Amino acid sequence: MTAKNILITGATSGIGLALFEQYSAQGDNVIACGRNQDKLNTLVARAFKTYSFDITQPTQVASAAQDIQADGSESLDLLILNAGDCRYIDDAKNFSGELFASVINTNLVALGTLLQYFLPQVKKGGQVVFVSSSATILPFPRSEAYGASKAGVDYLANSLRLDLAKHDIDVTLVHPGFVRTPLTDKNDFAMPFLLTSEQAAHRMIVGIEKRKKYLHFPKRLTLTMKLLAFLPASLWQRLISNKQERGDN
């Protein structure tokens, strides 16, 4: 099998690191991107290239993209937009506009910058992967910023798929459930059907290889959520409120 040229953002931890490990192990040329240079240094021996930049800083993204193109890596088979942030609005009555803007900027606005500089490097027959969240299936307490940002990612991916079809570039949207990562380690609520990053990455790789438009897992969780989404909004609100009152959050 011919090695693929793959760029992964957020490659130094969680799902991104697991994707890096598994793609590298199968012989692909992985360009690992992240903010933490020290963590990137540990990947150098196995990575095709490593680049340190903050996805919210357009000049840093532009510089990395120029270097990648100059290195002759402009023909990407796979662009995986994985980097993101998860923070919660703990006091909705005293809403933090600053936190909201920061999460939206990292999870959604930054994607526009990444697409501007890296999408032109995806070759005909290539693929773009957006890592969103199953949180967009149902509204959850404290998730105003995170959920809104990921709902925007969903629309962006689904719309972009239509426009990239004429360029023979596929788009895959991923809705992971709960996955053990440094971000979810901070959660103080129950996370049913929790997967490891390695399990999540394996499921993604299999689905991406099949060029699926939409991936969601684990299905025990996501299909249950999709069924609950058919409930009247008032009923779902009562159910989730009761869980909070029982301390199940």
Helices and strands in order, then pairings?
Blueprint: E1 5-9, H1 14-25, E2 29-34, H2 37-41, E3 49-52, H3 58-70, E4 76-81, H4 97-118, E5 122-131, H5 144-164, E6 170-176, E7 179-180, E8 195-196, H6 197-209, E9 214-217, H7 219-228, H8 233-245
Parallel strand pairs: 1-2, 1-4, 2-3, 4-5, 5-6, 6-9, 7-8
Helix pairs in contact: 1-6, 3-4, 4-5
Protein name: SDR family NAD(P)-dependent oxidoreductase
GO molecular function: oxidoreductase activity
Keywords: Oxidoreductase
Describe the structure.
With 249 residues, the protein is an alpha/beta fold. Helix content is 44%, strand content 18%. It has helices spanning 14-25, 37-41, 58-70, 97-118, 144-164, 197-209, 219-228, 233-245, and strands spanning 5-9, 29-34, 49-52, 76-81, 122-131, 170-176, 179-180, 195-196, 214-217. The longest helix has 22 residues, at 97-118. Mean pLDDT is 91; it is low at 245-249.
